[in-house]
Design a protein that fits this description.
416 residues, alpha+beta, 4-stranded antiparallel β-sheet, 2 helices, 28 strands, globular
């Protein structure tokens, strides 16, 4: 009798040990996989009022809080949103006429928001800055139809610099405000140029601009130094150069993401030692529109973009996608794929290289959304917690059961 009980107990304990080892192994594999290969993404619905869905621009303040400017197409207004803690607050910056297209946002050293945008009613380039609780709005340029594809940057003194397209003259223009006065340059007037412009300032405050040459279907690049503009073709193969996004590395080298309309690919180029090098980042189906580029602390490019499959009808997919280059290789990740998502992306990286993206959805919702990655913070999924709790309860149960069986085994031994 005693031997039979003992064998039964050992058999149970063996099954339990195998179960525990398997459970711990499974949890370990899940943990390693998530830490090694996966980013934890968190999505917020920023604004669903009306159809708050277009021309978003995102920046982070010194505390890492996201600020977003965007166009509300239903109310034809420019809006501004900021997240503090877990709460989003938003306000209407301008609503007279149809305003807020092509908004571009920057924060000064005091955290005050500056926004350049296109006034579609007046066909003007406008600029808004908030100080305290008051927004002040300037008309920067009103000569003809000007202000589309506006891109804003602030220099070390907080002066605004804006690149934009002149639709009347079909030119690329640039405006800077200093001492309360706006100065305007015509950067390039050779053909229909200046759409899809992206502006960045180097450490000396010199402006660099990537933009599209619609006439020749080229990607162009301009830089101002010593009071003069230098313009060059960055890419001229087939039909390229729309949806550009520009960033400068620590050496001042320009990095540009852009769309290849002929092959429907996302492409990337960087200039080093006066030579442009090119790479295909993503070539699956229709890829690369609405790209936004930022460089991480190691100089690696991160590019958010919109990808669309060619399945057709209900078989088509419209996704928010991110591309990251590290150790010479590109890694692609579909961040969100529920519905038609990922249009008008705007990307920024925080001090820990976490990715922050604003974008909008197309369709009946037309929402403005915000997503952030957290690769440095591992969060155990709820089902893993559940498995751990079950294992703990099982161990406790078996421990109690084993003590009881031992007592019974001892009693049997004495009786026999």
């Amino acid at each position: 009798m005693y031997l039979k009980r003992r064998l039964t107990l050992n058999k149970r304990l063996s099954i339990v040990k195998v179960s525990l080892i398997f459970s711990i192994f499974t949890i370990s594999i899940i943990t390693i996989a998530q830490l090694s290969f996966g980013l934890m993404w968190s999505v917020d619905l920023v604004d669903s009022t009306g159809n708050a869905n277009s021309f978003s621009s995102i920046v982070l303040d010194s505390d890492g809080n996201p600020h977003i400017s965007h166009y509300d197409s239903e109310n034809q207004a420019l809006k501004y949103s900021v997240k503090s803690g877990d709460t989003w607050t938003f306000e209407t910056v301008a609503s007279t006429g149809n305003v807020g297209h092509y908004s571009s946002l920057a924060l000064d050293s005091s955290g005050n928001p500056h926004i350049s945008y296109y006034d579609r009613t007046g066909r003007d380039l406008k600029y808004a800055v908030k100080s305290g609780d008051t927004w002040t709005i300037d008309t920067v340029d009103s000569t003809g139809d000007v202000g589309s594809f506006a891109s804003l940057a602030l220099d070390s003194s907080g002066n605004p610099h804006i690149s934009y397209h002149d639709r009347t003259g079909r030119d690329l223009k640039y405006a800077v405000k200093s001492g309360g006065i706006w100065t305007i340059d015509t950067v390039d007037s050779d053909g229909n140029v200046g759409s899809h412009a992206s502006l960045a300032l180097d450490s000396s405050g010199n402006p660099h601009i990537s933009y599209h040459d619609y006439t020749n279907r080229d990607l162009k690049y301009a830089v101002k130094s010593g009071g003069s503009w230098s313009v060059e073709i960055a890419a001229s193969f087939e039909e390229v150069g729309s949806h550009t996004s520009l960033a400068l590395d620590s050496s001042g080298n320009p990095h540009i993401s852009f769309y290849d309309a002929t092959n429907e690919d996302l492409k990337y180029t960087v200039k080093s030692d006066n030579e442009w090098s090119f790479e295909i980042v993503n070539s699956d189906d229709t890829i690369g529109s609405y790209s936004s580029l930022a460089l991480d602390s190691s100089g690696n490019p991160n590019i958010s973009h919109y990808s669309r499959s060619s399945g057709g009808g209900f078989n088509s997919t419209h996704d928010l996608t991110n591309a990251v280059k590290s150790n010479g290789n590109w890694t692609l990740e579909i961040i969100e794929s529920a519905g038609n998502v990922g249009l008008r992306t705007s990307l920024v990286l925080d001090s820990s290289d976490n990715i922050h993206i604003s974008y909008f959805t197309r369709g009946s919702a037309g929402d403005l959304r915000y997503i952030v990655s957290a690769p440095d913070e591992f969060v155990i999924p709820p089902f893993v917690y559940a498995v751990i709790i079950v294992i703990i309860l099982l161990v406790l149960y078996l421990f109690i059961r084993r003590r009881r069986n031992r007592s019974e085994d001892t009693s049997d031994l004495v009786v026999e």
